[in-house]
Amino acid sequence: MTESDMxxxxxxxxxxxxxxxxxxxxxxxxxRVTQISPGSAQIEMVVRDDMLNGFDICHGGFITLLAxxxxxxxxxxxxxxxVASSLTVDFIAPVRxxxxxxxxxxxxxxSGRTGVYDVEVSNQNGVRVAVFRGRSYRxxxxxxxxxxxxPISAS
Length: 155
Known about the structure:
Blueprint: H1 8-22, H2 24-28, E1 32-37, E2 40-46, H3 60-75, E3 82-91, E4 100-111, E5 114-122, E6 128-138
Antiparallel strand pairs: 1-2, 2-4, 3-6, 4-5, 5-6
């Protein structure tokens, strides 16, 4: 199957599989892509004890990494290699060990080679714990994955 034979959802699904296969940081932290579609992604992470800081709350870097990963999957879902150009994150509520965090990334704007994406991170009770805004830059003519090399299910 070639990319021209695939619909946008099939492309996003294939990109998620291909990206996660190469993303050692996300896999090492146990991140799971639970939803992806063109321009959006949802990723979950269980907060482990080794992610807690000296105040017994989740280190902000791990929350940022989760949000950044959701951002990366969302902006690369079109199979055009896209990198972050900047980001901001605001922490709203503390995160404890054992919490299950969900980062939901959504495309706000995509124009030419640049995009803006918002990510909301919430815990298992639906409490918003952080918000993130990422700005992306697309590399011209570079695919994220070779889609012909991936097994594609019919969507």
